[in-house]
Amino acid sequence: MSAPTLTPTRPEPSAPGAALTQRRSRPGEVAFRLAMQSCLVIAFGVLASLLAWVLIKGWNRLDSRLWTEMPTGLTSRLDGAGVQSALVGTLWIISLVAVICLPIGILSAIYLEEYADNTRWYNRLLELNIQNLAGVPSIIFGILGLGIIARALGLGFTVITAAIVLSLLVLPVVIIATREAIRAVPQSIRQASYALGATKWQTVSRQVLPSAVPGIATGSILALSRAIGEAAPLIVLGAVTFITFNPDGLDSAYTALPIQIYTFITRPQAEFAELAAGAIVLLLAIVLVMNSIAIFVRNRFEKRW
How far is CA 136 from CA 124, 142, 233, in A? Predict the structure, then answer.
């Protein structure tokens, strides 16, 4: 009778998450995770506190008078005052910014990402300048607009001047966001389109751009949200702090909600503070509507593609 053969047994592998659990249980990583969570809680707490203060402060002014009545400088008439001229001026400006900035920014991003030869020195210089312009303070764009657009070109302190300057301010943001969205489209989509005989422009317009729409929409709305809240360039460009009429053209005088809010805050009377809080809520509502549109567009195209 032959002796039984002994076969070596392999140790059973540990559970996949065992090593990960041990690694996560290190004191340094636990402390880092707690620090990050604390920062998140503090940030949301501060934001919630500010929103609550603004809502409580301006609750009495959150009615139709806020957007149907003109502002006033008399304390005795503050009960019926509103910010209609600033609201209309803001809508004028942000609409023109969208018309000027978005087509130029998206087309520039398409050229740089799909057509430009990175070995050319002027393309590399263009990309470097775009990245640098994204970090330039907004007041610099205001000074540039004052010297060149308002005075040298003779456009004056008008709605179109404000729109052009704010378009230049957020243009690098639109270009960078659009390039990232186009770059995220898989190369297999392009290769499949070329394999079916499509041209370069057919591939970009019918395959790449529709796939990149969610990222483009998000970046564009973020850029417009920054533009709608800018006050420093408009102060330099001569935005009127108090007007009782709405802009009626590109060459009209104007004011905007950030300028009007700043004017109200500087007044010592409590009624002006309430009116400023109501205007802040109105401005936040406009930004939320813009972001909701971006979310709707992004979800719609994500489901389609």
Answer: 19, 11, 12
Q: Which CATH superfamily is domain 75-301 in?
A: MetI-like (1.10.3720.10)
Q: Tell me, what amino acid is at 103?
A: P
CA 68 to chain centre: 27
Alpha-carbon gap, residue 159 to 246, rounded angstroms: 11
Domain boundaries in the chain?
15-61, 75-301
Q: Which amino acid is at 52?
A: A
Identify which has the larger pLDDT, 256 or 298: 256
Distant-in-sequence, close-in-space partners of 138: CB < 8 Å, separation ≥ 6: 169, 230, 232, 233
pLDDT tens string 74-104: 665 777 778 888 889 899 999 999 999 999 9
No. of helices (H) and no. of strands (E), the chain: 13, 0
- Sequence-ordered list of residues with C-beta below 8 angstroms from that of 206, at least 6 positions apart, any chain: 193, 198
Q: 198 with 206: CB under 8 angstroms?
A: yes
